[in-house]
Amino acid sequence: MITRRDFVKTSTASLAAAAAPPAATAAAPATSAALLLQRRPVVIADYSGYEFTNGGSENCVARAFRLITEGKDVLDALIAGVNIPESDPLETGIGYGALPNADGVVELDASCMHGPLKRAGGVAGIQGVRTPSLVARAVMDYTDHHLIVGAGAQRFARNLGFAIEPDLNTANSRKLWLEWRRRVDPEHYLDPKGEGRAPIPTHQKDPGHDEMAWQSRALAAGQSMVRDGLIREGSFWGTINCSGLGPAGDICSVTTTSGLAWKIPGRTGDSPILGAGLYVDNAIGAAGSTGRGEANLYNLSSFLIVEAMRRGRSPKDAGMEALTRIKANTVEKRLLNAVGNPNFNIRFFVLNARGEYAGVAMYRSGETKYAVCTENGSAAPELEPLLPGSPED
């Protein structure tokens, strides 16, 4: 952690640097002392980091940036930022009030990485804690482990004094879960208005694989709710990733999520997995993701992005390299749209050690913006897409 004196000295040097914001297309970071003095704090996140305030005056990236510039440890500042959407019941993809699993239970995942300390922590499938990002930080601080899951993660949190709630659903998330149940299983979960609903069709043609057929129907039912405007595309996939660069060059990142809406109980996506949901190298940069976690897990995309920046690629080009890899590795027919491209979206938020950043996506569709905060305040620039159109094309 930097001292306030060190922060003032570094900030003074930063303000004397070039006034123009860093371009997102410059080369990989240099390591000279002169360059270190030019680093300006920056925080980057997905759009949830801009949109939600939990009834307050600050969003995630603004709070994190303010705390960083006040001299707080970068990771502590980022976690304080994501605690805002984690606690906001209007954000139904994260924390309290998030869309639950297929059994109606909210299960949460989170991870964090501290660049200068070279430490990390994560939790998966934890129930009853609104802010799993703080539990992930506790795993990093108080254990020799990187990941604790399920009932063990909840027990660990309870032993450290975290409040354990019996149910993280709100009236809204429970109502949405019941609507999903009606769509996926209309013969047993009836419409209270008496209006019949045809079963959601399945892509599974083999009657011998009932579980696969149910999973296909379950996913289709959730996607139909997105199309009908009942849930946001971002909330359906869940997740916020937030990365930051401090004035002394410290880089950290945190990811927190409820995962895929209506998931199989126990399903764990990319968010708590180092190298997938996020990755940090303090000398190079950070990357994190939202969207289809299975695609990110298969390709370890956040690690890939940081390694691409190590080879000299800009944040944008490194993110595009990961998207191109995902596209090439998506070959199953069930995951392709009519033109043979992925029928899902995935986004990356990339920051290098110079303070240059980029937000990229497979498609500029659904959520089309991301969040960033600099000395100019918080903003929501447009994501750069790899492919035109949308996943449904």
Write the layout of secondary structure elements.
Blueprint: H1 4-15, H2 33-36, E1 42-46, H3 48-51, H4 60-69, H5 74-87, E2 108-114, E3 119-126, H6 132-142, E4 148-149, H7 150-159, H8 171-184, H9 210-227, H10 233-237, E5 240-245, E6 251-257, E7 278-281, E8 285-291, H11 293-299, H12 301-310, H13 315-329, E9 346-352, E10 357-363, E11 370-374, E12 377-379, E13 384-387
Helix pairs in contact: 4-5, 5-6, 8-9, 11-13, 12-13
Description:
The protein is of the alpha+beta class. It folds into 2 domains: 294 residues, 4-Layer Sandwich (Glutamine Phosphoribosylpyrophosphate, subunit 1, domain 1); 60 residues, no CATH class. The protein is 34% helix and 18% strand. The chain has 13 helices and 13 strands. The strands form 2 sheets. An 8-stranded mixed beta sheet has the order 4-3-2-6-5-1-11-12. A 5-stranded mixed beta sheet has the order 7-8-9-10-13, covered by helices on one side. A hairpin with a 4-residue loop joins β2 and β3. α4 runs antiparallel to α5. The longest helix is centred in the middle third of the chain and has 18 residues. The chain is globular and about 60 Å long. The N terminus is likely disordered.
